């Protein structure tokens, strides 16, 4: 942890609202992106991201410094996501929804693209289609697998950070990631015609 982060957290423990504003500014995009990709609804994600930061402010004394602050923050965000998904599932089921899962609309902008930069217009179009398929494939994963893919492949966290966030052992993280990546590949192959033999 940097000296600035330590000072910031010390001020946050003293309930300094300026420190809270700095924490939100430093982490809001990463928290929102994780929450949005987990929940699939911009409106729900905005509310949930705010709840994550309120929880951080209220429970900062519980952060012992055993891990990076960002790891602790991601753990709070992941737990909020799991709880919201359960709530939304119950609400959709009670209202007669087909599968009890919130609609995943991850094709809109405002996030870092998953594919690299390509110059040719036809390649750009193809890249966008593949990116959209990847986002749909991630959205189709179950909650646990989606969280692992987002933490490792989108947020680029280390295995140790993911272990700290999820409480899973490293072997379980790696095997579930492998299965999730295979499911993503199969989804893309199926939707691009490569899965036909």
CATH architecture of the largest domain: Orthogonal Bundle
- Summing up helix and strand content along with how strands pair, one would put the structural category as mainly alpha
Rounded to an integer, what's the Rg over CA atoms? 18 Å
Please give the domain count: 2
Helical run tally: 8
Record field, number of beta strands: 0
| Average residue-wise pLDDT | 83
What is the rounded distance between the termini? 52 Å
Given as residue ranges, the uncertain stretches (5+ residues, pLDDT < 50) are 97-119
Major sheet, described briefly?
A: none
Jot down its keywords.
mainly alpha; Rna Polymerase Sigma Factor, Chain: A; 8 helices; Arc Repressor Mutant, subunit A; 0% strand; single chain; 2 domains; 197 residues
Write up this protein.
71% of the residues lie in helices and 0% in strands. It has helices at 3-13, 17-39, 42-58, 69-94, 121-140, 143-154, 159-166, 170-192. α1 (3-13) packs across α2 (17-39), α2 (17-39) packs antiparallel against α3 (42-58) and α3 (42-58) packs across α4 (69-94). Mean pLDDT is 83; it is low at 97-119.
What is shown here, in short?
The protein has 197 residues and is an all-alpha fold.
Detail the topology: elements first, then pairings.
Blueprint: H1 3-13, H2 17-39, H3 42-58, H4 69-94, H5 121-140, H6 143-154, H7 159-166, H8 170-192
Helix pairs in contact: 1-2, 2-3, 2-4, 3-4, 4-7, 5-8, 6-8
């Amino acid at each position: 942890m940097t000296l600035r982060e330590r000072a910031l957290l010390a001020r946050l423990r003293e309930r300094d609202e300026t420190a809270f504003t700095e924490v939100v500014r430093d982490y809001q995009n990463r928290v929102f992106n994780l929450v949005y990709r987990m929940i699939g609804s911009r409106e729900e994600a905005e509310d949930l991201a705010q709840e994550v930061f309120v929880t951080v402010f209220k429970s900062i004394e519980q952060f012992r410094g055993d891990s990076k602050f960002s790891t602790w923050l991601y753990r709070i965000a992941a737990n909020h996501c799991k709880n919201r998904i359960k709530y939304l599932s119950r609400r959709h089921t009670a209202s007669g929804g087909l599968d009890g899962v919130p609609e995943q609309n991850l094709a809109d902008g405002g996030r870092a693209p998953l594919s690299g930069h390509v110059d040719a217009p036809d390649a750009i179009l193809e890249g966008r289609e593949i990116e959209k398929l990847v986002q749909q494939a991630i959205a189709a994963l179950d909650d646990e697998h989606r969280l692992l893919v987002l933490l490792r492949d989108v947020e680029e966290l280390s295995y140790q950070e993911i272990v700290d966030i999820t409480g899973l052992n490293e072997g379980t993280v790696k095997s579930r990631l492998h299965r999730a990546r295979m499911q993503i590949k199969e989804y893309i192959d199926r939707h691009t015609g490569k899965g036909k033999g």
